[in-house]
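Figure 6 in text form: structure in, sequence out.
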């Protein structure tokens, strides 16, 4: 029975991990639990490539003991202490694996299977100004809304408090949890139950979407994109730069005002893969040398202001470049930028975009857990 449940966990992980409507890059996590053991996806591993050995076995008794502890108020100290206790809850033989940072959240939900994903469609709701009211209208008392908060122990604690209150109020646990500026978590005792929940949630949200982003007309080379890419490679210290333009991007790079809906990060994954501070460079009139000079000035000003080199560079009237230490990293930056483009379009049905707050952005940029995840995914630098 346990063997079949682990195989079911692998199957449901691959099912959603391989579907870009639910998971982009290395995002999302899944779990299965019985009375004594939680099987949770390893940090940084791909759901699409799930195998039994990539899940980490956790002692549920030790995980429950974490709730009895008191942690420091300082966010960094708190998360380090909670992470140490969570790592100590790994079962014998699992010491070389690192469990998902959301392990506590998965353990506290009273369902055999828990699947956490970041669908652009759903994040059109969770990353919007009117998302909470819209979720209440669409799903009534069936869902739980968690206000925007840093991931990790503090998120798990807030979900626990919200779940306890929901269960007391409704007489049953909540199976649908919307995480503002993050994604969605669903729980069920069977994988069929998970799939039915997701099907219904996606169909319900679609009824409110006002438009789909126009991703047609995609090109990977356009006008002077190769020349600009070489300039960006030099400015970034020799990193790879990949170009993308489609009809939606063309509209976004018309000017700074048009670019605003994608000018900030929607979720932790967007920061990890595409950075928190996309560069928008005005395109001056003139020859290639003048364009390069204008881009260099914009890059320098942006890096001095943010303290970081951008992973996304948008050039007015041209398109968008993903920048990374490798071609893979540059491609992932573009992949997450396109996800942000979709999210931005979907938020139009719910009052427009709502980016992560500055303190949350700073937390993700400096959090050891996300630095580890970047390392595993091969996108450091």
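Output sequence:
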């Amino acid at each position: 029975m346990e063997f079949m449940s682990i195989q079911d966990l692998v199957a449901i992980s691959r099912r959603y991990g391989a579907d870009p409507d639910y998971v982009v890059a290395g995002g999302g996590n899944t779990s299965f639990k019985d009375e004594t053991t939680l099987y949770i996806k390893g940090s940084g591993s791909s759901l699409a490539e799930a195998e039994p050995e990539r899940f980490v076995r956790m002692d549920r008794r030790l995980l429950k003991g974490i709730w009895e502890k008191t942690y420091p108020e300082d966010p960094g100290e708190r998360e380090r202490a909670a992470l140490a206790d969570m790592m100590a809850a790994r079962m014998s033989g699992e010491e070389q694996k690192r469990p998902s940072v959301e392990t506590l959240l998965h353990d506290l939900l009273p369902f055999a299977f828990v699947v956490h994903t970041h669908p652009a469609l759903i994040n059109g709701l969770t990353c919007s100004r009117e998302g909470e009211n819209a979720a209440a209208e669409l799903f009534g008392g069936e869902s739980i809304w968690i206000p925007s908060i840093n991931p990790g122990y503090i998120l798990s604690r807030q979900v626990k408090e919200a779940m306890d209150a929901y269960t007391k109020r409704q007489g049953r646990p909540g199976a649908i949890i919307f995480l503002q500026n993050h994604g969605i978590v669903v729980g069920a005792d069977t994988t069929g139950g998970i799939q039915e929940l997701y099907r219904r949630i996606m169909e319900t949200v679609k009824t409110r979407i006002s438009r789909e982003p126009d991703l047609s007309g995609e090109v990977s080379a356009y006008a002077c994109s190769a020349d600009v890419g070489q300039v960006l490679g030099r400015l970034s210290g020799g990193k790879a730069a990949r170009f993308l333009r489609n009809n939606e991007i063309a509209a976004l790079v018309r000017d700074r005002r048009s670019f605003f809906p994608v000018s900030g990060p929607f979720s932790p994954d967007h920061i990890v893969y595409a950075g928190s501070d996309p560069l928008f460079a005005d395109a001056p009139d003139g020859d290639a040398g003048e364009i390069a000079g204008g881009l260099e000035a914009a890059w320098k000003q942006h890096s001095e202001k943010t303290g970081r080199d951008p992973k996304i560079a948008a050039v007015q009237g041209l398109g968008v470049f993903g920048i990374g230490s490798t071609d893979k990293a540059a491609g992932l930056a573009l992949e997450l930028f396109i996800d942000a483009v979709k999210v931005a379009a979907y938020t139009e049905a719910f009052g427009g975009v709502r980016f992560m707050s500055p303190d949350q952005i700073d937390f993700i940029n400096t959090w050891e857990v996300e630095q580890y995840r970047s390392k595993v995914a091969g996108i450091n630098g």
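Caption detail: The chain is about 45% helix and 15% strand.
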